[in-house]
Amino acid sequence: VCGPTMSPAGPAWPRVRVLRTQWTLTVALLASWRLWAMEDIRQCTWEVALTEYNKIGENLGSDRFLVQELVDTVGDVFHMLVDSTIDPDEKYLGFPYFLKINYSCKGEPSENLVRRGHLTGLKPLVLVTFQSPVNFYRWKIEQLQIQMEAAPFRNKESCEVELVCAMSWYTPMPIKNGSVVMKVHVHSNGLGPFIQEKKFHVNINGFLKREKNTIQFTVGEELMDIKPKYFVNASSRPLWFTVNQSPVLILGGIPNEKHILMTDNNFKDFSLVELSIDSCWVGSHYCPHSGFTATIFDTIATESTLFIRQNQLVYYFTGTYTILHESNRGSSNWVRVLASECIKRLCPVHFHSNGSEYVIALTTGKNEGFVHLGTITDGRVSFKMFPRHWSVCEQIGVTNELKIHYRIPEFIPEARGMEFLMILGTESYTDTEMVPKGMFYNPYNNLLFIWGNFLLQSADLENFIYLADFPKEQSISYLVRSFSGDMAIVTETEEIWYLLEGSYQLYKLFPSKGWDVSLSLQMMQKSSLYATTKTMVTLFYDDGKLNQLVYLTDDQRVGRLVKWPVPVEKVLMYMQDNRYHLQRQGSHLMLSFTDLCPFKEMDLRNLPKPQRFTRQERYRARPPQILEASGFHSENSLAVYQGLVYYLLWLHSKYDKPYADPVHDPTWRWWKNKKHDEDYYFYLASNWRSVGGVHIDMESYEKIYDLEPDSQLPERIYLDKGMIYNFTVFMKALGNDLYLPLAPVTYTQRSPVSVGVVLADPNCIEATVKPKVLINRNSVLFTITLKEKEFCYDQGISGHHLLKTSMSVKVLGSSGNCFQYTHHGPRMQGTLMLPVLIGCPPGKRLAFDITYTLKYNHQENKHYFDCMNADPEMPCFLYRDIFYPFFLIQDLVTGDSGSFQGSFVLKVVGGGPTLKSIRDYSKEEIYRYNSPQDKTESLIWTTDSKVTTKDMAFHVMSHRSSGIQWLCLKNSPCYDIIPESIFSPEFFFKVLVSNRGVDNSTYCNYQLTFLLHIHGLPLSASRAAFIVMVSASIFLGLVMLYVIFCLIWPLMVKAGNVLRFKINNILASESYYSYGSSSRSYTTPSQGSGPSPAAAQAKAEPKQIWKEDWLI
Fold first, then answer.
1. What residues are paired with 876 via a beta bridge?
2. How many whole angstroms separate alpha carbon 909 and alpha carbon 668?
3. Which residue among 213, 545, 599, 675 is buried most deeply as judged by most CB within 10 Å?
4. SS3 of the chain: helix, strand, coil, percent, to 5
5. Confidence band of 782 (pLDDT split at 50, 70, 90)
6. 387 pLDDT more than 60
7. CA–CA separation, 847 vs 876, rounded Å?
8. DSSP notation for 816-856
9. Measured on CA atoms in the order 111, 115, 118, 120, is the torsion positive or negative?
10. How distant, in Å, are the alpha carbons of 3, 511, 818 from that of 515?
């Protein structure tokens, strides 16, 4: 059998064909017969591509994730849904991308398979996990997931009528503020063919920009030609990044080129980019350099910023992540830092802390011995030098400010025939000097490794163990750790070693017999990852699995760069010394192999429900039901789908409000007004009368509180004060190793397997192991209980400043010998590691129980008066009533909600007569307004409770307290509030409630700030007297005016009548004389001179009118 080899540092190894003996492959094939039985299942895999919203139904490649803003493309569709379960007036937005899902199997075209799967009921289920952000001061810490069911959609390409057109499944690709790293898990609904689940990353790339319909890199220019000289004959290099937080990874080390490899999906695909930096070199007497090269030596990726080192120069580039920083803080060019320093090495800090990320720059030249610590917060980079005044090299051993933890021996110890050696100072040493090159620390199990041409391990920074399996002739280049219990070592000759943390046995993976057998089997199976020559570029862990980035060269000298999963378990299996012997069965001999594993089967049982410990919040969303016989969705129904997913996540983000809802569920407000009409909408859908051709089922959008445990330990657990986590390990022994002694009275049960538990911090956690032997099943049950000791940590905000620790479970003799065979391949057994985070778990909060507070206040005060302008979201309370506040402890993960039974401190920290005038008070004001020790007559409130804090500064209250009485003394801000209307004055108090320092039942520092609306505030005595005087004066004035009016009114009426009489008399007289003159001028002489009857009547009328007017 001929096998390829792997290229070390230096010239590529030539292709060597080594003849393997017949028994080697026979043993390998017999040892892996179970794996081949698993492979009888048809190998089918999911194919997932990221596609923009306007490209749905097109057969194009995967898009790059650079758009971070929500799109308003679904509003018009929702406005049509006037008679449906949702409110069309609400604001619905869409996501910029969808996930296009297909699957393929070996030997069959994908289109036929997808159609067959759809017709047999297959539906992909997509689980998206949002990674929590680094800066927990800006964003809420939470473990959020959403599970979606993919919707079938016909492709837009034309097809023949008699054939079913090509199709794919689509699901929205949601985004969330504060999260740029998303893990996607695709699996089937259990119908149709068996398809292996698939896990991958979909990360936002903030180092891309769109110009003229093309996507370009902001850090440099993308190169399409990947030349062999970039990787062949070059040493591998470490891949450095902030664990679980870096959306974009970069890798340098390309000889004499300022090129880097960039990827936003952990090297599933990647780009070669030439950086836009000036390749300058500044040499001086304080910064010696023997030569200049354009090579990018050190590269580090953080959540939003990239760091590189070229020669002694350090640069950084901040990506454009508006979803993180809420503003465009992206760099336009590479920024050079530490310009006056000579940097010989950039080192990563693998975990973020205190809301920031960190990098370390080591200096040489004039400032050698100083360390520059770089801090990255929200894309802003700053460096500080430590120590501040003197070099470590000058002061070590001289000053007491530096503590020497351990002195590394000068020479390598003599440890022949031993796996490890405890360094005590009394052992003998070889002539080989110890040459240390680096350190590596795991904060979960507190293991520190010091490495060079040796490997030292310590769990307490004081006692070190020398691992003797590593040859002193080799020198370690770098370490790679999974932070989940195992690590890999790369030497300067490109050897790969493997170590299970906590054990002392090192395994040489490459070159090895097991490695060669694995590659030979790859060649026989015609694997696509097989090549005649492999050159390792880097080694890294992805989702707990060891992977290589390798440059493959085939027989035609054609090269390609691929991500290759390292078959650690298979290599270890093939490396085992397969002892065998012949056993006679009947008339023939049987070949029997000795199993090196101490047990036959190992399972985990009785695992608790995970959400209480993992703090994983999960929502479920299904596509809307479509009213079409074909069952295929349209663009409108997909738009409705992503709008509903958006609104579900929007409700989740807005649920964390101070006033608790009557129902503890974020989706309650969505359906509360239409839940009673659910049957009506179902009737419309059943008769195909739903508006828009879609039916939105209320039960399809919900939060899940009852997840069932998997068959393995969770990725991590959170423990609050005194919490207990327990589970059972079931192991079946080999053969009949369990037995009972002959004496039945004094019999003892003996277990053939031994289980040990290793605690990283025994001062904080404790564990017990209780075995139970099952004789009839030849098995053993080990019940393992992990308990937090209740005095390890201080109170903190939910999800903040958690203490990292871990528990490891090890079966004696299982390291490298025990494997479980699954359809994913072999999996190592016998060693379990459970990371533990101690403190206040995320997802817990304190809420104001307004429902019970109103009920109890009404009951105690015998009445309740709300404001004239009532606000259902913020009810009012009357000033003169005793105020009884009640609070809830709500678990957003499990859905539990109960009355807060602990003690708390209540403070008024702000306020104002209106919502717009609310201001925050200073510390001195808070003390004066809330402290029972105040002597300045500034108290806002008081209580009959006599319990105070230790310094007697504030009252300590509980749910049994006697209530709050409002005072508003003369120097308080609520004293003498001027009413703005005829109603009594009002005031808005900003109230802070905290249990820090007064409640010992939890590690959680529950802090709640809410507004309290109080009405009916009294006026001050002076202002009240003034108002009374003014009111009385106005009243008396009105009375006097009334009296005066009543007395003078008759005289005024009489005077008016007289005046009117005189005016009428004058008018009548003028009319008489005018009429008499005109009559005399027209009278004839024969008529005589006596007055006529008409004239006599006119002359008598004024007297009659005067008499009538006067009698009015």
1. 1013
2. 31
3. 599
4. 20, 35, 45
5. very high
6. yes
7. 17
8. TT-EEEETTEEEE-SEEEEEEEESS-TTEEEEE-HHHHHHH
9. negative
10. 10, 6, 18
By DSSP bridging, strand 143-149 and strand 151-154 are: unpaired
Q: 728 or 1088, which is more confident?
A: 728
The answer for residues whose C-beta is within 8 angstroms of residue 1084's C-beta and 6 or more apart is none
Return the SS3 of 66. Answer: coil
Could you report the per-residue pLDDT of 247-274, keeping only the tens digit for each?
999 999 999 999 999 999 999 999 999 9
Q: Before 174, cis peptide (omega within 30)?
A: no
- Res 24: pLDDT: 43
Q: What residues are paired with 808 via a beta bridge?
A: 758, 833
**Residue type at 1097?**
Q
Token code pair at residue 173: 């690709």
Strand arrangement of the beta sheet that strand 717-719 belongs to: 717-719, 831-838, 803-811, 755-759
Helix axes 513-524, 22-31, angle to 10 degrees: 80
User: Would the pLDDT of 1064 be above 90?
Assistant: no
Per-residue tokens: 258 = 């300022």
Give 715-727 pLDDT, tens digit per residue.
Answer: 999 999 999 999 9
At 448, is the secondary structure helix, strand, or coil?
strand
- Distance, in Å, from the CA atom of 631 to the CA atom of 861, rounded to the nearest integer, reads 60
What does the block give as tokens for 126?
A: 């997509």
Task: Read off the tokens for 212.
Answer: 């003229």
The verdict on pTM exceeding 0.85 is yes
Nearest to 307 by CA among 268, 346, 345: 346
Q: Count Cα atoms within 13 angstroms, Cβ side, for 147.
A: 16
Q: Which two tokens stand for residue 770?
A: 């209780």
Cα diameter, the chain: 184
How far apart CA 614 and CA 604 sit, in angstroms, is 17
Crossing angle for the helix pair 22-31 and 568-575, nearest 10 degrees? 130
For residues 224 and 208, what is the distance between their CA atoms, to the nearest angstrom? 16
Q: What is the DSSP letter of 928?
A: H
pLDDT band at 18 (very low <50, low <70, confident <90, very high): very low
Q: Are 797 and 840 in contact (CB under 8 A)?
A: yes
Q: How far apart, in whole angstroms, are the C-alpha atoms of residue 34 and residue 530? A: 23
Fill in the amino acid letter for 87: D
| pLDDT at position 843 | 93
3-class DSSP assignment, residue 993: strand
DSSP three-state, residue 903: coil
Cα separation of 508 and 572, whole Å?
9
DSSP state of 595: P
Pairing mode, if any, of strands 486-491 and 941-942?
unpaired
Q: Where are the beta strands (DSSP E) in 95-197?
A: 97-105, 124-130, 143-149, 151-154, 167-172, 182-188
| pLDDT given for residue 823 in this prediction | 78
Two structure tokens written together for 1029: 């005087």
374: tokens are: 């770089």
Q: Where do we find the tokens 């979803």?
A: 323
Q: Which two tokens stand for residue 523?
A: 């060649």
The amino acid that residue 421 corresponds to is L
How far apart, in Å, do the first and last CA atoms of the chain sit?
140
Provide the β-strand partners of residue 689: none
Cis before 387 (ω within 30): yes
Distances (CA, A) of 23 to 30, 573, 822, 1019: 10, 15, 26, 101
Say whether 801 sits in a helix, a strand or coil.
coil
Q: At a CB cut-off of 8 Å and minimum separation 6, what does 246 contact?
A: 181, 301, 302, 303
Token output for 280: 């300058």
The secondary structure element, H or E, covering residue 418 is none
Torsion-angle region of residue 244: left (phi > 0), alpha (psi -120 to 50) or beta?
left
> Which tokens sit at 282?
């500044």
For residue 577, the tally of other CB atoms under 10 A from its CB is: 7
Amino acid code (one letter) for 313 = L
Instruction: Write out pLDDT tens, residues 1067-1078.
Output: 887 766 665 555
